[in-house]
Write a structure and sequence with these properties.
single chain, 133 residues, 7 helices
Length: 133
């Protein structure tokens, strides 16, 4: 799989505040929002389907590199997409989840990682064949 890079100003996660400072008075509410998303596999799946549909550049930047923590990015992206939770607070929310909640969140994330990899294997396999003939 080819690693894809984009100028950070194109990243939808950046544009939507994933790396922004947050108001400390909102911190507990944002952490609760992130816990809700990450601890509900069906809802997490729904939000990730929207991230995949709408965040082309961030998705490519973060999922094309197999050496990146893609599971973490997917959780952070879902929380940012749905509730504008910055990544630092998503990490705090993750620390509050049970082992079982983490297991199921990771299963959802793996579904999207595997889907991304399969889609790109097919894309580059087909592209290579067309270029050769």
């Amino acid at each position: 799989m080819k690693v894809i890079h984009h100028e950070y100003t194109k990243w939808e996660d950046y544009q939507n505040g994933m790396f922004s400072q947050h108001d400390k008075s909102d911190e507990e509410e944002l952490i609760k929002d992130a816990i809700y998303i990450l601890s509900n596999p069906e809802y997490f799946d729904l939000i990730l389907s929207r991230v995949f549909k709408n965040w082309k550049y961030s998705k490519e930047e973060n999922l094309s590199n197999p050496h990146a923590n893609r599971r973490a990015w997917l959780g952070q992206a879902a929380c940012c997409y749905d509730c504008k939770v910055p990544e630092v607070l998503t990490r705090k929310a993750w620390a509050k989840l049970t082992g079982e909640q983490r297991f199921f969140a990771n299963k959802v994330a793996d579904k999207y990682i595997n889907g991304y990899e399969e889609e790109n294997r097919r894309l580059y396999k087909d592209m290579g064949g067309k270029m050769l003939f």
